[in-house]
Amino acid sequence: MGTLKQITLYIALFSFISPSSAFSLNNCTISTPLKDIQPKVLCYKMGFFRIPSIPGNTHILDISFNAFTQIQIGDFNHLSNLQDLNISHNKISQIQEGAFDSLSNLYSLNLASNRLQAISRGMLHGLTNLLVLRLDNNYIKDIEETAFSTLHNLKVLNLTKNQLHYVEKIKPVLASPHLEELYIGSNHLNAFKSYEMSTNPLALKILDFSNNPFATFQLTDNIFQFLNHLDLSYCGQNGTMTWNVTEKTFFASVKSLYFMDVHMSVQNAANVLQSFQNLLNKIRLNGNAELNRTDLLLNACSPVLQVLRLKTNKIKHLNEHMFDLCSNLTEIDLGDNEISNIPPGMFRGFTQLKTLRLQINKFTRITNFFQNLFTLEFIDLSRNSIKTLNCDVFANLTQLKMLYLYSNKISIIESCSFKDLKSLEVLRLGTNNLLRIGDAFRNGPQSLLELQLSFNKLSKIEKYTFRNMSQLKYLHLQDNQISEIESYAFGGLKNLSSLFLSSNKISAKTLTKHQDVFSGMPNLENLGLDANIILFTDDQLKFPPFKDLKHLTVLSLHSQRRGIGQIPSNLLQGLSSLEMFYVGNTNLAHLNPDTFKFSPQLWFLDLSKNALSEDHSIPAELFHPISRLTKLLISRTQLRSLNFLLNANLSRLSTLKATGNEIDLINKTLIQSLPRLEVLDLQKNTFTCDCDNEFFIDWAKNSNSTQVVYLNKYMCSYPSSLRGMSLSAFNTESCTLNIDFICFLCSSIVVFLTLLSSFVWHFLRFQVVYAYYLFLAFLYDNKKKQSGSTFQYDAFISYNAQDEPWVMEELIPKLEGEQSWRLCLHHRDFEPGRPIIDNIVDGIYSSRKTICLITKNYLKSNWCSSEVQVASFRLFDEQKDVLILVFLEDIPTHQLSPYHRMRKLVKKRTYLRWPKPGEDTKIFWQKLKLALEAKEGHKSDLLIP
Ligand SMILES: *[C@@H]1O[C@H](CO)[C@@H](O)[C@H](O)[C@H]1NC(C)=O
Ligand SMILES: *[C@@H]1O[C@H](CO)[C@@H](O)[C@H](O)[C@H]1NC(C)=O
Ligand SMILES: *[C@@H]1O[C@H](CO)[C@@H](O)[C@H](O)[C@H]1NC(C)=O
Ligand SMILES: *[C@@H]1O[C@H](CO)[C@@H](O)[C@H](O)[C@H]1NC(C)=O
Ligand SMILES: *[C@@H]1O[C@H](CO)[C@@H](O)[C@H](O)[C@H]1NC(C)=O
Q: What does the pLDDT average to over 468-483?
């Protein structure tokens, strides 16, 4: 047995990572379980420069932010199911014609932010179902005439930020007959003359011409019959655009115009606006501070205009009559100006106005600005400097639903301010100077659904503060200084579903001093108490604070600034609906086994960033009451093993995240105790690369029900000789003595003997000579053994003449030059005049190892040659590990089949593979060095420790 085991010598450590349908992809994650109908694979920001191996059924692939420089034919051959492909933010300057041929199911292709300079004829060939194509942010100067001719279904094309310069160059894209959205902003287009693009009607609905310095804009044919939206923002940077639209009706279908920050004279702007015949519903005139607004509005406004945006126009004073012509507006945006007052009667004739945006202005107080605007539904007054709110400011705004007053300087609110707001649903008062709430909300607004009071200076919540807000669902009180909460502080909030109290000064005392702190809100589902100073010292609480929260599903207690101390065994009492519990980052060192006995519905538990290093920090019994647990996060908790899960009965656990711990072993029993595991993330642990982890490594590579996230990044920490090696590269086949191998060996010997005898029969002469040399070799070897002599060379190199350049340029400089091995090469070290076979026997026997450099040529000519015969004779005869196989090129296993023995060798053992062009060779040389260093005739201490 021992001898046989000795024969299962290692050769090398590296094994091919084969494309498979397994879950663990190198540097990619599958974001939806493989069971999903549309698997989505995410490989962004990973430094890839070629398409990684990805399951063939992938529908959505994101390989953006990598280092691709080109796309070649064949890259996507096995991905014909792909529907959505994002290769943006790479360095692609070349796409081979036909590279996308297999992607006939693709409907969205994102090539934005690359280095393409031209779109050539066959580049987009095959994308017959493509709907959306992004080519923005490249250096495209040219598009070949027929480049788009097979894109019959293209609807959206983004060519923003390229170098097209001339409108004629855009013409080829119109070969896609259904193109509806075309974005060609920022292309340095100097002139638009419609006949250069087309004289026939186009299907375009959206056209973005923004950021082009048009000196001329000439429309002489009715090509934009279906155009709905036109973007001319930031155009005419030259200040002298000539606008010539020969028929008034050419823009008759345009309903929406973006006309922001244009650089043109008032007269020019007026000309442009007049072309739209006052048919616009929506216009953006943002950032046109230089134009005379009275004139601009005169031309822009019309009774059909509904949306007017005048953001960022440096407007200081509003003129009472400026909007007289657009009195049917439903939305007006005056944000980011310098307005401090609204003249009374300004909106006098407005009967439809629903949205009024006045954010980022200079208001310090509001008077009766909104008088008569009964239709208003949304007022945005955020980011001003309003100090007080008078009682009648919002009088009669009975339809108002949303009122934004955040980021002002309000220090007091009177309850009368909101008294008429019978429909108010959202009130945002965050980031003000409120010190107390007092009576402000005692009477409502009763219809309010969301009240935001975060980032103020509140310190205390008094009894029944929100008594009459029975509709309220969301209450934001985070980032205040609340340290005291009276009993029934939230009493009356019958429908409250979320209460946010994070980042306050709430302590354990705040929660437990009074009996009914969280009483009176029976429907609360989400309670945020994170980032406070809750520190428990007792194992048992007198008044469990959450006892009345029967419907609470989410409780956050993470990130307590002084640590949580412990979780009292009855802290969660009453939380019979609790589903998610966050208690990470709280310096928790121990969990009481009874913690969850009140919360049987829990399925999500976050314990990350704690200090659970002790053996019994997490007792298995902790999990017994929560058998529904499906997601467990225990990253960065100083864990040394996951064995506490063995008896936890977590039969439903599907996601386990335990990164950044000190886990070294994962055994079979553990994996078997988690039958529903779908995602396992164990990055940044300290794995042991030995046979104890054999099951885990094989399972992680091959499981098709569990995705082991970024398996290829898991590193060996032990034994020290393998530190830094990838766990998945550890060769587990050396761990088991394989019955197959024994059979192979026996049959090989039988076959060999049979062959030998028949050879001896048939080719007597040759074989006798050969046998003679083998005998010589045997004698030679014996002599060596007796004399215990040392070897003359470290390695004999067997290779095909065609691979000589590699030997000369790569191997010799590295092995002889840097690593100082003595090599035996036939062209150099063979004694001239001696018979070649003598030289070979001599060479092999005076070298400790024989390195075979295997290529297809080598297999054809040298395999079965005398060199290998002699070396393998030595292998089998001495049971020494002398043969090192180095593959200089990928030879698929099926191509090895004619070389039966080689194939078996390769299947049974690992071997070294010369990296593909572009890959790092350091590891290769490192492994070769290890292989050369290993003592022959001994078990490999690398593989069979
Ligand atoms: C995976 O990513 C790491 C770092 O992001 C990188 O060093 C490694 O080369 C990548 N592996 C592959 C196969 O691209
Ligand atoms: C078009 O490209 C620009 C520039 O990259 C980008 O900002 C914009 O969102 C894109 N629009 C669409 C519809 O893809
Ligand atoms: C500005 O207009 C002049 C002709 O009037 C033209 O030569 C020049 O290229 C234009 N500049 C830009 C940035 O478009
Ligand atoms: C507008 O273009 C048409 C056709 O090229 C031309 O006949 C006409 O004179 C131009 N009008 C102006 C004002 O430039
Ligand atoms: C803007 O135009 C109006 C009408 O043409 C004129 O009365 C007003 O003085 C102009 N304003 C400025 C600042 O030029």
A: 96
Residue nearest to atom 14 of ligand 2 (CA): 158
Question: What SS3 state is found at 649?
Answer: coil
Ligand nearest to the CA of 246: 4
Cα 653 to middle of ligand 1, angstroms: 29
Query: Ligand 4 atom closest to Cα of 220?
Result: 4
CA of 244 to the centre of ligand 4 (A): 6
Output the CA 187–ligand 4 centroid distance in Å: 25
3-state secondary structure of 357: strand
Beta bridge partners of 798: 852
Report how far ligand 1's centroid is from the alpha carbon of 676 (Å): 29
Distance between CA atoms of residues 73 and 566, nearest Å:
60
Give the model's pLDDT for residue 76.
Answer: 94
Distance CA 572, CA 581 (A): 10
Q: Residue 939's pLDDT is what?
A: 34
How many angstroms separate the CA atoms of 469 and 494, rounded?
Answer: 8
Averaged over 778-795, what is the pLDDT?
Answer: 68
Q: What is the pLDDT of residue 292?
A: 84
3-state SS, residue 302:
coil
Residue 403: strand pairing partners: 379, 427
pLDDT for the residue numbered 15:
25
Mean pLDDT of 265-273: 88
222 Cα–ligand 4 center, Å: 15
- Whether the pTM exceeds 0.70: the reply is yes
- Check pocket membership of 242 for ligand 3, CB cut-off 6 A: no
Rounded CA-CA distance 340/332 in Å is 16
CATH match of 769-933 with 4.10.91.10: no
Question: Residue whose CA is closest, atom 5 of ligand 2?
Answer: 136
The 3 state secondary structure assigned to 805-822 is: HHHHHHHHHHHHHHCCCC
What is the average per-residue pLDDT within 770-774? 61
How many CB atoms neighbour CB 319 within 10 A? Answer: 13
Q: For the ranges 107-121, 232-246, 594-608, 627-641, which has the lowest average pLDDT?
A: 232-246
How do the domains of the chain map onto residue ranges? 769-933
Q: Which atom of ligand 1 is nearest to the CA of 26?
A: 13
Cβ(627) – ligand 3 distance below 6 Å = no
